[in-house]
Write a structure and sequence with these properties.
There is one protein chain. This protein is mainly alpha-helical. It has one domain. The chain has nine helices and no strands. Helix 1 crosses helix 2. The radius of gyration is 19 Å and the shape is elongated. This is Transcriptional regulator, TetR family. One of its GO terms (molecular function) is DNA-binding transcription factor activity. It comes from Lentzea fradiae.
Amino acid sequence: MPRLVHDTSAMLDAAVRLLAATGSADGITVAGVIREAGVSSGSVYHRFPTRAALLAAVWNRAAESFHAELYDLFSGEPVAAAATLGSRTVSWCRAQPENARVLLAGLGSFEPASWPEESRTRREAEQARWDEHVRGLVTGLKRVTGRSTAEILLVAVDLPYAAVRRYLSAGREIPASLDGIVEHLIRSQLTP
């Protein structure tokens, strides 16, 4: 009799639904994933031998998905790049609210110190790549705007997150108009 193979993505999707339902990464448990995904315990434990491995996979998938959507947007004229990045941050959060809630919960709530070494290394490499892109954008924006790093980060990085936080935290849909509002605010604040 052939073995039934369960999709890892379906298990991670179940974990993300648990976070959305409980409002916290504490709501993600192996038993909960087994129930939510309708899979056997062996299927889950085969892929995620510990809860820490499961939490790591949930975080890494969400962060990598978000970053992959935006990496190509860092190039070009810095003000335009920052405005487009802000707008796309909002649209990504609207398209993937469950994964956006993972990121909103914050890395610390996923207990990264307990992750398997491979998962920590993967997260650190991805974060280093992301940070390099952000540093490059900040450097370009400082050059063309004369603004400080703190001002640039507040406008280009913090503003999009703040715009979506109120909707994600309340479990409400992000309005379609928010992309354009965020893009306009970033552009107007950074245009020299």
